[in-house]
């Protein structure tokens, strides 16, 4: 019997199947569009006529609906389904019930690297659901990435995944605004790269700009000291950023939203506190 069946052979599922093969596993593959299995079969994978085969099913598809469409009414008795697809926490919780009704166990997951990063050092995946089921298969799943268990609630893996993705996408988007702004003055985007790299390194550091750690502590304690850089000062400064972008002829959706959020926290009377106080406004829409 196969060690692992990979269901969904887009860029991610194909990279996973290939990585399992390279790690010496016996791999079965299934995809809605069957021809996508051809290269993997040539590399040693077994082609399945039906998706439900073997004890460990690893799914990488566009959504949880794709899992329902693929597995249909098949029983899942004794099988562990590890779904690494994107979805909402509510969808993941519902999927855990759906798999359990069919006799199987669902482990939910969010993988934190693009396909070329699968199996590479530094890769990690958030997993949630029943810990003992994950422990049983961790030896196989470790071929893909480090196994980072975040808790029993099936929705948690996607919450961690989306939290990280939100930080990732918003960081990259702010970089694009910054590059576009300097571009209006004829500055090449790569002129900005060393400064942005340094900023990110500083944010991750233990130094005075180490705001990731500092905010982590402040958000935990609910105390946001603003003696040296008040939120009010930063709300005013953010307003200047919006005006500058607008005057440069750029679109301002994201900076305006940021400014509105800062200004709201300021108007709520917390302008003397530090930037961390913005979280209080986020928590009360
Ligand atoms: P896609 O998200 O485009 O998923 C493609 C796969 O989904 C194909 O196997 C496709 O089958 C299948 N699929 C789509 N709809 C259905 C359906 N209704 N029934 C059955 N199968 C269906 O590509 P990726 O491989 O890039 O991503 C897979 C998952 O991994 C996604 O959830 C994504 O969010 C996540 N992910 C991706 C990353 C990346 O960088 N690529 C990074 C981290 C996570 P078919 O070939 O037949 O169309």
From TrEMBL:
Keywords for the protein's UniProt record, in alphabetical order: Oxidoreductase
Start and end residues of each 6-phosphogluconate dehydrogenase NADP-binding domain: 4-151
InterPro entries, A to Z: 6PGD_dom2, 6PGDH_NADP-bd, HIBADH-related, HIBADH-related_NP60_sf, NAD(P)-bd_dom_sf, RedAm-like_C
Record has Acetylation as a keyword: no
Pfam family for this entry, one: NAD_binding_2
UniProt key word Transferase: no
Annotated ranges, domain NADPH-dependent reductive aminase-like C-terminal: 153-284
Superkingdom per UniProt: Bacteria
Protein family according to the UniProt entry: Belongs to the HIBADH-related family.
The protein's name in its UniProt record: NAD(P)-binding domain-containing protein
Organism: Nonomuraea corallina
High-level lineage: Bacteria, Bacillati, Actinomycetota, Actinomycetes, Streptosporangiales
């Amino acid at each position: 019997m196969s060690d692992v069946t990979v269901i969904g052979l887009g860029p991610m599922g194909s990279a996973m199947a290939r990585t399992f093969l390279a790690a010496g596993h016996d791999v079965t593959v299934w995809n809605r569009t069957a021809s996508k299995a051809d290269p993997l079969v040539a590399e040693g994978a077994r082609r399945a006529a039906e998706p439900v085969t073997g004890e460990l099913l690893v799914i990488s598809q566009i959504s949880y609906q794709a899992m329902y469409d693929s597995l249909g009414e098949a029983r899942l008795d004794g099988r562990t389904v590890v779904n690494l697809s994107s979805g909402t926490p509510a969808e993941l919780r519902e999927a855990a019930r759906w798999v359990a009704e069919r006799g199987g166990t669902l482990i939910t997951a969010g993988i934190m690297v693009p396909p070329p990063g699968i199996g590479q050092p530094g890769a990690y995946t958030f997993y949630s659901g029943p810990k003992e089921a994950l422990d049983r298969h961790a030896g196989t799943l470790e071929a893909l990435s480090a196994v980072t268990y975040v808790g029993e609630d099936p929705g948690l893996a996607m919450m961690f995944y989306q939290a990280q993705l939100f930080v990732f996408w918003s960081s990259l988007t702010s970089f694009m605004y910054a590059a576009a702004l300097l571009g209006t003055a004829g500055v090449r985007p790569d002129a900005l790269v060393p400064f942005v790299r340094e900023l990110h390194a500083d944010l991750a550091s233990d130094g005075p700009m180490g705001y990731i750690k500092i905010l982590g502590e402040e958000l935990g304690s609910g105390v946001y000291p603003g003696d040296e850089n008040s939120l009010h000062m930063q709300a005013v400064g953010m307003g200047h950023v919006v005006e500058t972008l607008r005057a440069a002829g750029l679109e301002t959706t994201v900076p305006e939203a940021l400014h509105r959020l800062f200004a709201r926290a300021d108007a709520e009377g917390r302008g003397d506190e530090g930037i961390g106080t913005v979280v209080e406004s986020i928590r009360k829409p």
